[in-house]
Amino acid sequence: MKALTWLYMMNATLLLLHEIESAYEKEWEILKLPGSITGFLLLHIPVIMLILYGLIEIEKISTIGMILGILLGMGGVIPFIVHKIIFKTPDHFGLPVSNVIIYLNILTGISLLFFSVRYY
Questions:
Q1: With a threshold of 0.90, does the pTM exceed it?
Q2: What are 23-69's pLDDT values in tens digits?
Q3: Rounded Cα distance, 59 and 33, in Å
Q4: Could you give the count of Cα atoms lying within 13 Å of 101 in the half-sphere of its Cβ?
Q5: How far apart (Å, rounded) are the C-alpha atoms in residues 51 and 55?
Q6: DSSP string covering 5-69, please?
Q7: What angle do CA 24, 28, 32 make, to 5 degrees?
Q8: How far apart (Å, rounded) are the C-alpha atoms in residues 77 and 108?
């Protein structure tokens, strides 16, 4: 398995962990998204499918794999921007484990973004 694949898997895992916590924290209320938990879950179906498909393609070093690597890399940066810069809510995403996930996700996200662009 290629190093880029491992980086993609680490970033995807951290992002999915963050999304699990997002359901616990009722992120749809924080971001004022419509549809409550049902809408939030339905929104994640294509996202998770795309993440899984990207893993297959990144292992092949295909063009679509690199594009999905770039997108997932940006996805690893978004939780930091949303929860540490734009929507600073001390009651949400403030646990030590939350911070570890968010900060590791930005590191793996930037790394994945860099290497996906490089291979692209």
A1: yes
A2: 999 989 988 889 999 999 999 999 999 999 999 999 999 999 999 99
A3: 34
A4: 20
A5: 6
A6: HHHHHHHHHHHHHHHHHHHHTTHHHHTT-TTHHHHHHHHHHHHHHHHHHHHHHHHHT-HHHHHHH
A7: 145
A8: 9
Number of domains in the chain: 1
d(CA 95, CA 89): 12
| CA 78 to chain CA centroid, nearest Å | 7
Instruction: Print the domain residue range for 88.
Output: 3-119
- Could you report the per-residue pLDDT of 56-107, keeping only the tens digit for each? 999 999 999 999 999 999 999 999 999 899 988 778 898 999 999 999 999 9
Length of the chain in terms of residues written = 120
Rg over alpha carbons for the chain, rounded to the nearest Å, is 14
Q: How many of the other CB atoms lie within 10 Å of CB of 4?
A: 20
